[in-house]
């Protein structure tokens, strides 16, 4: 791998791979958790480790695709979990790479579901059919339908201006002084992140519980 770039240099690496799904904690199988961790978290780590020697040699850039969902969750905790883990991996890597002149940047998009198609509309019937008997005994189909409708409404509000995220990625790769974090989101999304990051947990829980109840 390293020999292919030894004569032309290597400037930037963008870790963009990611998958998403919907479901409360007990609705998802252990295999699903393992798959998400493997793609969203370990996939980026594997790629980073493979290119790290070149990035150090050429004082390059590493860009990671995170999400504002790293700060809170509204029905897709499995996705939030992987993005929060990526954030911490990047925080450690950014500090460690300073001495080599390598800069690490995180892109934190808001809701761009309609741009990326990362998450198809949720089917309550499909979710219900895949639930274990234990989960079906706790939840009813009407609850699953309500949660699915809620999540689908969020997806339908997603921005179609995916170029905004691409512009942030380009700036992270080419700016003389790139930001450590690029939050590309609507004002109300930024406010929600601020509340979740700055206020006590009970405030965050109250806000999210209210949102989930609407």
TrEMBL record:
Residue spans crossing the bilayer: 62-79, 191-212
InterPro entries, per database record: NAD(P)-bd_dom_sf, SDR_fam
Top-rank taxon, per record: Eukaryota
Coiled coil: none
Protein name: BDH protein
Keywords noted in UniProt: Membrane, Transmembrane, Transmembrane helix
Family stated for the protein in its record: Belongs to the short-chain dehydrogenases/reductases (SDR) family.
């Amino acid at each position: 791998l390293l020999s292919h770039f030894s004569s032309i240099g290597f400037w930037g690496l963008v870790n963009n791979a990611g998958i998403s799904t919907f479901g409360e904690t007990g609705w998802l199988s252990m295999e699903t958790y393992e798959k998400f961790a493997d793609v969203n978290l370990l996939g980026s780590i594997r790629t980073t480790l493979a290119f790290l020697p070149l990035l150090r040699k050429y004082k390059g850039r590493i860009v990671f695709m995170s999400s504002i969902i790293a700060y809170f969750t509204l029905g897709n905790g499995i996705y939030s979990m992987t993005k929060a883990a990526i954030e911490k991996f990047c925080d450690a890597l950014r500090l460690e790479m300073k001495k080599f002149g390598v800069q690490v940047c995180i892109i934190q998009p808001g809701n761009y579901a309609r741009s990326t198609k990362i998450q198809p509309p949720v089917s309550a019937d499909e979710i219900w059919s895949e639930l274990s008997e234990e989960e079906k005994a706790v939840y009813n189909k009407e609850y699953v339908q309500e949660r699915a409708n809620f999540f689908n409404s969020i997806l339908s509000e997603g921005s179609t201006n995916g170029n905004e995220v691409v512009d942030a990625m380009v700036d992270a790769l080419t700016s003389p002084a790139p930001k450590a974090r690029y939050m590309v989101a609507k004002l109300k999304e930024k406010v929600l992140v601020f509340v979740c990051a700055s206020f006590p947990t009970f405030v965050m829980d109250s806000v999210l519980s209210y949102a989930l109840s609407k």
